[in-house]
Specification:
The chain is of the alpha/beta class. It is 43% helix and 21% strand. Strands 2-1-3-4-5 form a five-stranded parallel β-sheet, sandwiched between helices.
Amino acid sequence: MKTCLVVDDSRVIRKVARKILEELDFECREAGDGSEALEACRQQMPDAILLDWNMPVMNGLDFVKALRREETGDRPIVVFCTTENDMAHITEALRAGADEYVMKPFDGDIIESKFQQTGLLRAS
């Protein structure tokens, strides 16, 4: 079973994302900010990370930069999931090491589609 770390400072968003991902057969863990997420990755690197941009302590952009410097930090597929939708933010996220981008609000179809595009899921 593939693993996904859901990183968002909103408990509600984490729960919604977790439900969607578990229905797609992912084993999920959660983190409330980038610092918690980095520690979780150091303990066990996930296959995928669904990542919010705006969080306290360490934001998503700083997290993805730090993640990519970790020993196996190039392995996870990182999908930003945020309200930041201008081209400059998207470009910055991709340059920092994100693989894909999802806009909030999202639903199961959007997550499934993005995870298929990144190769995390096979098209059904």
